[in-house]
Amino acid sequence: MIPAPFDLVAPSAYRHRHLESGETVFRQDEKARGLFYVLDGQIELRRYTQNGQNVVIHRASNGQTFAEASLFAQNYHCDAIAIAPSRLVELDRAVILKKFVEDADFSLALAKRFAGQIRGYRRKLEILAIRSAEDRIFAAIEEGQLNGSIKAFAADIALTHEAVYRGLATLVEKGLLEKTGRGKYVVRPEK
Amino acid sequence: MIPAPFDLVAPSAYRHRHLESGETVFRQDEKARGLFYVLDGQIELRRYTQNGQNVVIHRASNGQTFAEASLFAQNYHCDAIAIAPSRLVELDRAVILKKFVEDADFSLALAKRFAGQIRGYRRKLEILAIRSAEDRIFAAIEEGQLNGSIKAFAADIALTHEAVYRGLATLVEKGLLEKTGRGKYVVRPEK
DNA sequence: TCCTCAATATGATTACAATCATATTGGTTC
DNA sequence: GAACCAATATGATTGTAATCATATTGAGGA
After folding, report:
1. Are residue B42 and residue B71 in the same domain, yes or no?
2. Which candidate, A19, A21, B12, B68, has a CA 20 to 30 Å from the CA of B53?
């Protein structure tokens, strides 16, 4: 049930947590206690700039882990907030680190996971660098970033939700997307 | 001379490379051979989108490494191009991987490095999500992203160089930045 | 069933960065 | 030192996303 490689650590390192929508998992600059596995629900990782703007760094849902990087840092570097009722497993930092030095398979798998995350962030950067709202929306949908609500998606790709609604409408008009329901869009298959 | 933890691997894994400005270190989708350490020069990591737009993912210069993540991937996921005459050390992928499973200190240090990179990308995402050109420029300078040319900096933060020149001018006008020379700007200390 | 509320959606206007143009400066080469 | 070239810099105009406003839809609760 816990995804590889974290299934390799003893269950004594697990701690279950239930959160209501809006509750905080951890805050930026708090001492890092461990990483998390989402049984169900939705967690948003956010960072705040001085001006009060905030960026959604990542959104984790069923079956995903987050805050892996905090294993190797003293503190958390973003806020983690439940945006839906959520059940999490917290994996103890010290236990994971011990496992890391003892078990090469584990450390290899974890490093691979990190490499994957790095790639993911690169793709996000790539999308944010696209200037045209329409192109950005299309690229992000192609990457599979539109799974939740349009508003959340808009925040993800750093556009206002109005701009996204408009962009979606024109993309459908151009025949690049298909509207499959209220707030539901899919890439139209090439013919 | 090679930074930790790569100083721990045998020098037989090193391969020196000299590149002229414009030459290619590797291309996207090529088989990953290893990671690189920059003795001197400048390397740009770029990704190309379908529309032909390209994003500068990272810019590596003296004393930095790049393509670490390719250790755990089959192929390179971006282009690496020298934008100045550069001397590199290529570190063999297989040797590093072997070291990784054998030496826990090494694997710990590498994982820490990865975690640092993840943090770096997060910060970059944060900056790209700032809508106002002026705020974005200021935030990026505060993060120390303005080290090379203004044009390179502009590409980094996904603005046109014109917008950056104008933003810099108004920031100086407002007293937030100080112009220390042609193309040189520093954050003005708070009083 | 009605009420409430948030997400979805579109209209009108404004703000601002992109674009196109044109100097100016500084470094390199012959 | 002249010639060349790219980076720096600013001006004028345009395009486009943000903003502010206002419906509309749908889900959940009383």
Report:
1. yes
2. B68
Chain A partners of B5 at a C-beta cutoff of 8 Å? none
pLDDT at B53 over 70: no
pLDDT at A116 over 70: yes
Of A53, A102, A128, the CB nearest to B158: A128
Please tell me the predicted confidence (pLDDT) of residue A40. Answer: 84
Q: Which of A85, A88, A82 is nearest to A33 (CA)?
A: A88
Return mean pLDDT, chain B: 88
Q: B38 in helix, strand or coil?
A: strand
Last residue of a domain, one of B56, B84, B113: B113
Q: In the predicted model, is pLDDT for residue B51 greater than 60?
A: no
**Whose C1' is closest to the CA of A181: which nucleotide?**
C8
Please tell me whether residues A49 and A114 are part of one structural domain.
yes
Q: Which of A29, A109, A113 lies closest to A65, judged by CA?
A: A113
Nucleotide nearest to A149 (CA to C1'): C7
Which residue of A55, A98, A112, A176 is the best one to mutate when testing the B interface, meaning the one whose CB has the most B CBs within 10 A?
A55
Indicate the pairing of strand A79-82 with strand A42-48.
antiparallel
Chain A, nearest residue to B112 by Cα: A72
Mean pLDDT, rounded, for B117-124: 88
Please indicate whether, in this complex, the C-beta atoms of B111 and A72 are within 8 angstroms of each other.
yes
Same domain, A63 and A136: no
Tell me, yes or no, whether A157 lies in a domain: yes
In a shared domain, residues A141 and A98:
no
Cα A53 from Cα A71, distance rounded (Å): 27
